[in-house]
Write a structure and sequence with these properties.
- The structure holds two protein chains of two kinds.
- Chain A has nine helices and ten strands.
- By secondary structure, chain A is α/β, with parallel strands linked by helices.
- Chain A folds into two domains: 235 residues, von Willebrand factor, type A domain (Rossmann fold, 3-Layer(aba) Sandwich), CATH 3.40.50; 44 residues, no CATH class.
- The longest helix of chain A is centred in the C-terminal third of the chain and has 24 residues.
- By secondary structure, chain B is of the alpha+beta class.
- Chain B has five domains: 102 residues, no CATH class; 148 residues, 3-Layer(aba) Sandwich (Rossmann fold); 90 residues, Immunoglobulin-like (Sandwich); 175 residues, Rossmann fold; 62 residues, Immunoglobulins (Immunoglobulin-like, Sandwich).
- Chain B is built from ten helices and 40 strands.
- In chain B, a hairpin with a 3-residue loop joins strand 35 and strand 36.
- Strand 8 of chain A pairs parallel with strand 2 of chain B, so a sheet runs across the interface.
């Protein structure tokens, strides 16, 4: 059943957000689209030895005059970036008020919009079980965005998810943009292999952990029998008191710190987003501060 | 230990209910969370737990069970028996008039009540309390009361009277208690001072040496518009100069006054006079203030205003009776012949039938002289006309000591009265006072007839007797006229403790009196007079309904002179008998402690609740 998160009002909201961002930051995702490969743009990058068959128009004759050897000018290859957004579609994302899934869809839609505004290509995937399903593929331009973005409403959040097992066999791409992973990361499953793989492929990593207020600050007290939303066989049966809640918060901090450290160690970014936080706060208070938006 | 209300233990049923509620509430609440991963991980971050936090639920249950248990016990009202810890307390409280004497802002009776309440409050639980008030009458206020509050409440309701009681009477009451229980602690609470006492504890209230002034012995004469009043004043404690004032008819300013120097303890006469054509009352009072105001003034009411007379004489001549009435009374007298009587109309206070017998008795006092035929409701029958032995015989005055007879024969010598003929009466079915007899036959008697009116019967024609020539005749006639025309009250001045006497006049239907404090008193009547006790100082109002009309009279009851003495010293007050020292079992009532425990348990339970509710968050 769809969430109907992406609607007219939301699109107006992110459009306004984009306008505000445009006035305050130079660009999305670093402000340029320089490829990590050499290409045919006008921006000089380096020299290399001329080999027969190379374009002679790119020989630097001034250098030849000085060194008596042919060198060819190399220019940065300015390519179209490909932003890939992965949404955790597990059942646990349906928890919280508002649901974490809503916030995940909003974030994905907003990031996609910001990307297409930079004429980047955007693909959005959902992680279901041990595989990645493409929701929107190769979306370029605002028209395309408006045509396809409402497909996010169709995402069903159910079942368990194995992030690494899903991402590793997928087509990750090679160093041509951001890979954004949106999840609650409340799993014992190993997500680190996926991050390692993305880093290996020179993808820019952005992990957004979405948690509900109830998860950040549990309110229930007393004798509780807690069932896991994804695995009914897993339960926790204890008396919840102040000491237990303090321990819970410490454990949560341990988890978030671990993810953050792991991302940053691989040149990526990490951001914790409460499910009820407004998008403007996410972008101005988080992504700008982090340097994802410059 | 025993329980006053054992049914209160039924509250213990609440314990299993609380346990059941606790068990039901102890169930784990089920809830689905995103992931149990962090909760499980939290075990690693859990600090060493406070052992109390795990017990809080159990502590709360224990506290609630304790609360129910203590509540049940408190409601059941346990009483512990303390062997030999209590006494029987018997109080004899002097409530005579002197206990009304002021001691500063309070009175002696209030001090006495405080003393008794102190003893009661300080006594061991389980003691019994008995109290009698001794004044004009001995009144047992309560007996064998074990509840201190109830006893104190009853003590608080006691008020001093105005009457007097001597030591012998008080001793008799105290001795009665001691005889009944020689282990009892007998207390006499009084303002009198006793030199020695044995087997009794005397609690003296009030200080000696208070100023007290009193007025007594008020007499007056009122002639030619001049009122002369004579009274006696006394200062009990010390020599003093007293101002004695005379107030007429309730006026606020005195009509006369006199300053008189008196010596301590000596009565001194004082005369006051003023001019007034008439008065209904006057008050003689000492102006100086003292501690006992009840004896500082006496109100005297003029009782001569009360009499009204009208007389009908039915006689051929009526000479003797008319002469006497004219001489003695200021009365309207109508004389008619027997022939005129059946058609005569009019109502009179006194009807004198001289040698004429009416068919029926009129409504009013009646004299029947030489009545020769029976009359309905006359109260007597006729045998017939008799001649005196030897032609002439002396009638004999009654030797009865009855007060009514003595009053009717007051001043009458009763000798030398002879008659030649008389009517022999018999069958006197109503009670009459025989005044004179001849040959054991009543010839002059008086009483109340069947119509309810006063009746005097002469059993002979005055012309057949020399009584009219005897000096006793005038006196006897005056007495009989007074009897036939009684004033409602003969005297307006009384002393507390006396009985007021009210004459039941012809046509009187109901008599009642109101005391100075407003209490309604119903008089006891013997037909001709009614009496009621005087217990309070002040003006009593006597209300009498005469022939349908209400009439009021005032009499004044002065303070008892014995109670005016501020300091009374007696040698001893000892109860005879051998004291024993048996104590009764006392009681210990832990209710207060139980309620304190209950409050503490509630506070503790509340504390645990708050700890669970807020501190643990």
């Amino acid at each position: 059943m769809g969430k109907m998160v992406v609607n007219e009002a939301f699109l107006s909201e992110i459009e306004a957000l984009e306008t505000v961002l445009k006035n305050n930051v130079a660009g999305m995702f670093g402000g340029n689209h320089q490829s990590k490969n050499f290409g045919s743009s006008c921006e000089f990058a380096d020299y290399r030895d001329y080999v027969p068959g190379d374009d002679i128009s790119k020989i630097d004759w001034n250098v030849y005059a000085r060194f008596d050897k042919l060198y060819q000018k190399l220019y940065l290859d300015e390519r179209q970036m490909h932003t890939k957004i992965y949404i955790d579609a597990s059942r646990s994302m349906q928890h919280g008020t508002p649901e974490k899934a809503e916030q995940a869809i909003k974030l994905a839609a907003a990031l996609a919009y910001l990307s297409v505004c930079e004429m980047d290509k955007v693909s959005i995937f959902v992680i279901k079980g041990e595989r990645v399903e493409e929701v929107i593929s190769g979306m370029v331009g605002k028209d395309s965005y408006l045509n396809y973005i409402n497909l996010l409403n169709e995402i069903e959040f159910d079942g368990e998810v194995s992030i690494s097992d899903a991402i590793l066999p997928s087509r990750i791409g090679m160093g041509d943009g951001y890979s954004v992973l949106i999840s609650d990361f409340l799993t014992e499953e190993d997500y680190e292999r996926a991050l390692d793989k993305l880093a290996d492929r020179k993808r820019d990593i952005l992990c957004i952990q979405v948690l509900s207020r109830e998860e950040l600050n549990p309110q229930f007290r007393g004798k509780m029998h807690l069932f896991d939303s994804e695995n009914p066989m897993s339960f926790f049966r204890k008396k919840i008191d102040r000491e237990r809640v303090n321990a819970y918060k410490a454990a949560l901090k341990y988890i978030t710190d671990k993810i953050k450290n792991y991302c940053e160690a691989r040149g990526g970014h990490y951001m914790l987003v409460p499910a009820d936080t407004a998008l403007a706060d996410v972008f101005f208070g988080g992504l700008v501060d982090m340097g994802v938006l410059k | 230990m025993s329980f006053t209300y054992p049914l209160g233990l039924l509250v213990l049923v609440g314990i299993p209910i609380v346990i059941l509620i606790y068990i039901l509430r102890s169930k784990y609440n089920e809830q689905t969370v995103t992931s149990t991963f962090i909760w499980k991980l939290s075990e690693r971050f859990l600090k060493k737990r406070n052992p109390l936090s795990g017990l809080t639920g159990l502590i709360s249950l224990l506290l609630q069970i304790l609360i129910i248990t203590v509540t049940a016990i408190a409601i059941a009202h346990p009483v512990f028996t303390l062997p030999g810890a209590a006494h029987d307390y018997c109080f004899v409280l002097d409530t005579t008039g002197s206990m009304n004497m002021k001691e500063g802002r309070t009175t002696r009776i209030e001090l006495a009540k405080e003393e008794i309440e102190d003893v009661i409050r300080g006594a061991a639980d389980g003691s019994t309390y008995t109290l009698s008030c001794v004044a004009g009458d001995t009144v047992k206020m309560f007996e064998g009361v074990t509840n201190k509050d109830k006893a104190c409440e009853l003590v608080e309701s006691i008020e001093a009277e105005y009457t007097s009681a001597d030591t012998a009477k008080t001793l008799k009451v105290a001795q009665k208690y001691f005889d009944a229980n020689t282990s009892a602690l007998v207390y006499l609470v009084t303002d009198k001072t006793y030199g020695e006492h044995e087997n009794i504890e005397i609690i003296k209230v009030g200080k000696d040496g208070h100023d007290n002034y009193a007025v007594s012995g008020v007499t007056y004469s009122h002639t030619a518009g001049e009122l002369n009043v004579t009274a006696e004043v006394i200062s009990y404690a010390k020599d003093a100069t007293l101002t004695v004032e005379l107030y007429l008819d309730g006026a606020s300013s005195p009509a006369a006054f006199a300053d008189v120097s008196v010596k301590a303890g000596e009565k001194t006469a004082v005369e006051l006079g003023c001019e007034t054509p008439r008065f209904s009352s006057f008050r003689t009072a000492v102006k100086n203030s003292d501690g006992y105001g009840e004896d500082n003034g006496i109100i005297t009411y003029n009782i001569k205003n009360d009499k009204t007379y009208s007389t009908l004489i039915v006689s051929e001549t009526g000479f003797f009776f008319r002469a006497i009435i004219d001489a003695y009374l200021d009365s309207e007298v109508t004389v008619i012949t027997p022939e005129e009587y059946p058609t005569h109309e009019g109502s009179y206070g006194l009807y004198i039938f001289d040698c004429y017998t009416p068919d029926s008795l009129p409504e009013g006092a009646v004299w029947l002289v030489n009545c020769t035929k029976s009359i309905e409701n006359s109260g007597f029958g006729l045998r017939g006309l008799e001649s005196a032995k030897d032609g002439v015989g002396e009638i004999v005055k009654s030797s009865s000591t009855a007060s009514s007879v003595r009053k009717l024969l007051a001043g009458v010598d009763g000798t030398g009265i002879y008659i030649s003929e008389y009517v022999k009466y018999s069958g006197m079915y109503l009670k009459f006072n025989t005044l004179f007899t001849y040959d054991s036959n009543p010839v002059i008697f008086a009483g109340t007839n069947g119509e309810g009116y006063r009746q005097v019967v002469f059993g002979f024609d005055l012309h057949d007797s020399d009584i009219a020539l005897n000096p006793d005749f005038v006196i006897l006639m005056r007495n009989l006229l007074d009897y036939s025309f009684p004033s409602v009250i003969d005297k307006s001045g009384f002393t507390v403790g006396e009985e007021a006497v009210v004459n039941v006049v012809a046509g009187a239907e109901a008599i009642k009196a109101h005391s100075p404090s407003g209490k309604e008193i119903y008089a006891e009547s013997d037909g001709s007079t009614a009496t009621f006790p005087l217990d309070e100082v002040g003006t009593y109002t006597v209300s009498m309904k005469i022939s349908g009309a209400d009439t009021s009279y005032s009499i004044y009851a002065a303070a008892h002179p014995a109670e005016s003495v501020p300091t009374v010293r007696e040698d001893s007050f000892s109860l005879s008998g051998e004291r024993t020292y048996e104590k009764r079992d006392g009681e210990y009532d832990p209710t207060l402690i139980l309620f304190i425990c209950l409050a503490l348990l509630f506070i503790a339970d509340w504390g645990v609740f708050c700890y669970e509710k807020y501190q643990l968050r």
